[in-house]
Amino acid sequence: MVSKSRIILVLLGLAAMSLLKVASQNYGDALTKCILFFEGQRSGKLPSAQRMTWRKDSALHDGSDIGEDFVGGYYDAGDNVKFNFPMAFTTTMLAWSVLEFGPLMGTDLEHAVEAIRWGTDYFLKSASVPGTVVAQIGDPISDHNCWERPEDMDTLRTTYVVNQTHPGSEVSAEIAAALAASSLVFKTSDTQYSEILLQRASSVFDFANNYQGSYNLSVGQGVCPFYCDSNGYEDELFWGAAWLYKATNDPKYWDYILRNISNSASSFAKRLNSVVGNSFAEFGWDSKDAGINVLVSKWVMNTPNENPFIFNADRFVCSILPESPTISVTYSPGGLLFKPGGSNLQHATSLSLLLIIYARYLEQAHRVVSCGNVVATPARIISVAKGQVDYILGKNPLGMSYMVGYGNKFPQKIHHRGSTLPSIDNHPGHIGCHDGTPYFESEDPNPNVLVGALVGGPDNSDQYVDVRVNASESEPTTYMNAPFVGVLAYFKSLQS
Q1: Contacts of 125 (CB under 8 A, 6+ apart)
Q2: Between 427 and 273, whose confidence is greater?
Q3: Of residues 126, 145, 149, the one with CA closest to residue 75
Q4: Is residue 21 pLDDT above 80, yes or no?
Q5: Rounded to an integer, what distance in angstroms lies between the CA atom of residue 230 and that of residue 232?
Q6: What is the model's pLDDT at position 266?
Q7: N or C end of the chain: which has fewer CB within 10 A?
Q8: What does the pLDDT look like over 357-390, one tens digit per residue?
Q9: Could you give the C-alpha distances from 312 to 169, 219, 263, in angstroms and in order?
Q10: Could you tell me where the DSSP H helices lie in 250-407?
Q11: With bands split at pLDDT 50, 70 and 90, how would you rate the model's confidence at 229?
Q12: What is the C-alpha to C-alpha distance for residues 117 and 91, in angstroms, rounded to an integer?
């Protein structure tokens, strides 16, 4: 017999779902701009269809220091370094966004797929030599010592490579995940390219697994302290195996996951099966734990009591739900989710994507999440994500959009070299390493609008100071925007 309280919860869930359809933002406009941002981060020879026209060709000799062609890819943030670990995560997130929500994107789908291909073309180059994977291009110390346009770069473009004697399982396995996920995006539109991506994903995963070790030790002087792996590389190996299983349906990848989970000596198995600690609640360029549980949950939803994935995906939801007794995040007075570390909007966007995807899986399985005595319906879970999206786009105490170019009020002085310095169209002459300093120190708005860029966001009191020097709040990153693509596509579909 269905209890009265259960009926009330279902009715509340339906009411919440109807509220989601009430338009509070122009999600379609935000989606278009969110994808456009990636054109501003492109490295290499730009295509004739480039829409962010103040950007020009840059870093056309990457890889030449070791006699290779590693031109292309993305600059990760406001600097001019190509950090392949977060770039691969960015590409995986773009691919997952398209796989889950591509049909909802309308005319923006074409540009989302272009953004993915810009990343995968580069990663095919980065993993073209058997037994080696490029981990990074550009010396970060040299780069960060200068404030110059990517088109003017005269800093060290050092190529950092991991190999069999100096392994880098986290960066290699994340590249494998990106290639595998992307192979599914191109499976019907470009079969040959899809097969190339999948074959390379398999070989790169084998390299990551057969020669295990952290790139912290192999290329630490390049990646640390900027993108050190702080929680081990085992999660990336599981993440890569999960995406390869999704792309191939080859049971060897599923067996790999199950075998390692059952190995009590495995550090990741201890993390995944533990009822203490918060690794299950983490997701971003460094930690894939929550993403693994959500991705895998779809395949095991009918056997929730026989695996740790559903259990931990539910725990993840309960760690975020404001009314949950096991919440582990904090919220600002205005409602923005916070986790430790800089560039806070990376948490709001990536965790919102997981919430929406998992809520959809739950809805298909007619399941809810129980957080102690609190029941979270799929509609309630999605409403939490919607609160984050609306806050980011302007529904906050300052009335400020934290997406550049969206709305009437948005950050004007973001921490981004190309945006801060005059474009080559307006200043054709070379701007040297320290010649850009006056532009950085200027109180004028940036001359080039990096449309669609999400900045790090306000502090936990909902305050935001629009200055370039405060990089943790004013710098955009690709891995903040990438999961937001899927989030915005979902809410755009509700709006229409």
Answers
A1: 63, 68, 69, 70, 71, 72, 134
A2: 427
A3: 149
A4: no
A5: 6
A6: 66
A7: N
A8: 999 999 999 999 999 999 999 999 999 999 999 9
A9: 24, 33, 18
A10: 251-262, 267-273, 289-300, 308-320, 345-365, 378-392
A11: very high
A12: 9
For residue 174, give both structure tokens: 């994340």
Which of the following is catalytic: 111, 144, 166, 415? Answer: 415
Domain 52-273 has CATH 3.75.10.20: no
Domain extents for the chain?
Answer: 52-273
The reported pLDDT for the residue numbered 175 is 98
Whether the model pTM is above 0.90: yes
- The CB density around residue 215, as the number of other CB atoms within 10 Å, is 29
Asked whether the predicted pLDDT for residue 76 surpasses 70, the reply is yes
List Cα–Cα distances, 62 to 59, 80, 157, in angstroms: 6, 12, 6
42 phi/psi in degrees, rounded to 5: -65, 140
What is the rounded CA–CA span in Å between residue 60 and residue 58? 6
Report the interhelical angle of 345-365 vs 378-392 (nearest 10°). 160
pLDDT bracket for residue 325 (50, 70, 90) = very high
What pLDDT does 11 receive? 36
CA distance 78 to 91: 18
pLDDT at 342: 86
Average pLDDT over residues 126-153: 96
Residue 135 — φ and ψ, nearest 5°?
-95, -25
Question: Is 430 a residue of the active site?
Answer: no
CA pair distance 465, 445, nearest whole angstrom: 13
- What type of residue sits at position 31? L
Q: Is the peptide bond before 225 cis (omega within 30 degrees of 0)?
A: yes
d(CA 349, CA 246): 23
Could you give the CA distance from residue 49 to residue 42 in angstroms, rounded to a whole number? Answer: 13
Measure the CA–CA gap between 39 and 150, rounded to whole angstroms: 13
| Averaged pLDDT score across all residues of the chain | 93
CA distances from 169 to 107, 134, 210, 487 (A): 37, 12, 9, 29
